[in-house]
Each structure stands twice: as C-alpha cells, then as structure tokens.
Amino acid sequence: MVIRLTTYYHSKDIPPLPGRNIFHSTELFRVLEQTPGYSPVLLVAFCGDKAIGKLLCITRRNFRLIGFTNITYIYGTGEYFDSPIKEEDVFDELLSYFTNRFKDRSFLLEFRNIEMPLFGYKYFRKNNYFPIKWLRVRNSIHKRNWEKWMSASRKKQITRGLKNGAVVDIAKNENDIRDFFSSLKKYYSSKIHRYFPDIRFFLSLLNQQSNKELGKIFIIRHEKRIIGGSVCIYSNDTAYLLFSGGMRKSYPLFYPGVLAVWYAMTYAKEHNYKHFEFIDAGLPFHKYGYRDFILRFGGKQLSSRRWFRFRWNWLNQLFIRIYV
User: Whole-angstrom Cα distance, residue 198 to residue 201?
Assistant: First the structure.
C-alpha cells in the first residue's frame, strides 16, 4: 500500500485528525504558531484518505549556540492509528522525509522523550542519527497515598511554605500570566541549558480553545506578589511539567519552587491523571542538581535515550563512533 505524506505549515489548513497525544496535536501546533521564535510543521501520513500517522516538528531559533541557529525537535516518535501498514514502516517514511527536509535548515535534529527506546532503531541509524542515554523521572500519582514517597525534607518544606503564608493558585487572566512570566524569566535567565519561551506561549496556552484540557499555569503568591510557578500540559493519563521555578533566594522561607511543583502534582492527582512526568531529567551524570531536586518528590528514575543528528556530517560520524 502507498503512503502519502502531507505537510501543514498553518493550523487553519489542518483538517480534523484523530489522536490524543498532545505532542502531535493541532492544539499544541496553534500555541507554537502564535509564539515568536517557534515554527511548527505537522507531517501527516495518509493511506488513501485515512490518516495513519502524524509527526509534529518544532523548529526553534536558538540564541545560545554558535550565532543564531535553528534546532528542530520532536517529542516521542509520532502518533499512529489503525492501519494495515506497520507503525515502524509509517515512521520510516515520516523520519526519512523529516530528515531530508530539515537536515540543511537546522543545526541540530533531535527526538526527545522516547517511550520505547528500541522503536525505530534501524531507521534512525539508516538516517545517520546517533543515540545518547537520557533519563526521565515519572511519578505514579494514581495511588491513594502517593505523597508518602516524597522525602521527609520535601514534606516539611511544603508544610512550612504554606504555614509561612505562601498561597497556591491557578493563573486565570493576562495579568497573572505577565507577573508569572516576569518572575520565571529571571529564574531561567541564569540557566544556560534551559530555554524559556516568549510570553505569548503562555498567553496562547491560557486562551487556547479545546474540548480537552491542554495545559495549566500554576502560580505561587506571597501577599500580592507572584514568587514562583509552574506549567503543565496534559496528554492521555499523564501530566507533563514543562517549566517550574521560584524566587528561592529572595523568599527562602516560602519554598516557591517546591510549592510550584507540588501544587501541579496535586492538581493532576485531583483531576484523575495517573502519572506526573518531569519533561527533562537530563543526562545520566552521577551528580545533577535538578534531578536530585525532582527525585525528592518521590518519582522513579527511568532510563531512556534521545536521538540526534547534526547538520555537519563529519560531526555526526564522530558522535556515531563514540556512541554507537
């Protein structure tokens, strides 16, 4: 059977498509489309008139690499639907087209948050990608006493922060978003390896119209000032933490960064999500401060991999020799 690929550059042109994976959805496409610095492209595989797979490709302009460069990345390996064609064969077509289209336009191509580490292995290798071991941290929050897995020190910090007057809430209007953005931008500006998008990403997330829950922005206040917050998006039975932080040096007794994560987890539990995942737990270094921080919330560390491909072939060959 013949697979036909269609490329969509604007959300208004995307027809109704099946699927529940937020990372390959039209809703997330719209949010990114309205955010400066992002250029989403949706690849859809058809068998006849039926959609059998889709892949949301996200190109972001990067100001921290050599000059002004683009990186293009994908969360997971796409979403697939009932078809007489095997998922891996559909992925092969999507991956080959994606690689040929973006390999000369982006400094780096990357596949993140791979659910099944071995899925598509031979197709990645065929297209000169190389794998690097990565870590994920996932909390099972569907259990009745899910909080018991948190460390004792983390529980004390949550209790103290609330007792000292910190207030947890959900952002409800544009003023909340602007104050939240100002607070977290200062936090992320010192993190060389962490990227914080333009404010229009968060405004679009707040205003996105959908028949399913797309995302939430949680804020931590002391008196009238926002001192921390977090952002989650939701897919199937899992809440994914995209961003979080707090003014811990200015407000150390309120633990705003801790409360921002805890409140996001509490909301997910109350709304019947089964899992809470931190979107980036980093490389498997023995010591990594952020991973130590998130593990104290009681999650389980999972081994995964990310696949990379550089624009320069000589650099790809060097990394292939090292990692493959």
Answer: 6
